[in-house]
Amino acid sequence: MSIEVWERLKAARYPLETGLLLALCFVLPLYEAPKNVFWIAYVAVWMVNRARAREFGGPWDLWDSLIAVWIASGFVVAAFAGLEGTQWRGAADLLRYGSVLWLVKRAGYDRGQIRAVLGTLVASTVVGLAIGHADLLRGRAKFGTLELHSVGHVNHTAIYLAIMLGVCAAWLYSRWGAWRGRTRALAVAVTALILVSLIMTASRGAIGVGLVLLPLLAAAWWPRSRMPVAVSSLVVALVAGAAVVGGAEVLRKHANDVQADNVLAFRDGIWRMAFAAWARHPWFGVGMDNYSMITPERVSAWDAQLGRTTDPKRYFYISHGHSLYANTLAERGAIGGAVVVAVLIAWLVCLVRYRPRGADPDDDWLLWGCSASAWFVTTAVGLVNTTLHHEHGMLAVILLGLWLSRLPARREAQPSAAALR
């Protein structure tokens, strides 16, 4: 964090509130227990501050309604869940990241606070990777894979890293011309660390999406600069070439799956389980966080009720749906699933309608790039892994909330555009 940003942060409104948000961002990939403490404290202090100021972030808009419906949908699904389990805990997870999205969107943080949030997210990722790499070297890593301690399983760590790769790339693309040599070198080093760590996870979906993200995000910068496209394309080519020549683990993993005629790594069987649950409980699903209760025995019973004989080879049991879309349909049904789709579509619409113009400030480009990265990773990796929950869900909505907080200014700058109201 630069001296300038630190000075602006100290002079900003609501220092305690900002500090709690920064604490939440810092522990997000690192420690489990403090997250709930900092979340509750942040919400409480935010509400007290706004009540005293009698200012809650401006008039109600369509995004406020959508967020409210999104949070409520988790509890509606829990009330009508097809299976009795931990569905209320799943609704509480949605409440956590949904409320943070709502408050960050309406907080009106200034440039120093916003950069402090992004800087803290980057710093916590670097610290988490340092711990993860040290565990690997000492042979202490769980399952022998690189993981961020609080994010957990390597696939979920890879999702988190792919989003943060986009954050670092957007920062490089936005601020390169304004930085001096040392800052540029540090930014490149951090981005390289996250990229290499992402490759080391051997998570095919997240790696593929992360590598596509770099030139795709750079292409959006075309009105502002042509350099990101050239540099990012070269980086991707070098990484791909090094992976092939060096026999990267992700390529060996893919080759083994192809040889075993299991390219999807059992995901086709997992998704059949999810769709079987959705067919049985089409409107509200089995309940958030209840996917692990979709057992082969239950699927057999459901098939029997329909007069079908179950073929065990068609199904594969695991604790989650390995797809944002299959998991959402199974756990939340058509009602909850429609709300999630609405959020993702509204997010994309805002990104397209309010993409910055070439002459717009660096911070507009930075926040747009961070939000676009979170959307792309969430929706693209979501095809083959369960995104938008827990730590990487919280990370995604923080980046979305920061971008949404800029929309009033974007609307004023583009008065002819159809605003999302």
Account of the protein in words:
The structure is a single chain. This protein is an all-alpha fold and 421 residues long. The protein has one domain. It is 70% helix and 0% strand. It is built from 17 helices and no strands. Helix 3 crosses helix 5, helix 7 packs parallel to helix 16 and helix 12 packs across helix 13. The C terminus is likely disordered.
Summarize the structure.
With 421 residues, the protein is an all-alpha fold. The chain is built from 17 helices and no strands.
Largest sheet: none
What is the percentage of strand-forming residues?
Answer: under 5%
- How many E-type strands? 0
| Cα end-to-end separation | 35 Å
Give the helices and strands as they follow along the chain: HHHHHHHHHHHHHHHHH
- Put simply, the count of helices is 17
Rg value: 22 Å
Helix content bin: over 70%
Helices and strands, with pairings:
Elements (H helix, E strand, L loop, with lengths): L2 H9 L3 H13 L5 H21 L8 H18 L7 H21 L3 H28 L15 H22 L5 H20 L3 H17 L6 H20 L2 H11 L7 H14 L15 H10 L18 H30 L8 H20 L8 H15 L2 H7 L8
Helix pairs in contact: 1-6, 2-3, 2-6, 3-5, 4-5, 4-14, 5-16, 6-7, 6-8, 7-8, 7-9, 7-15, 7-16, 9-10, 9-15, 12-13, 12-14, 14-15, 15-16
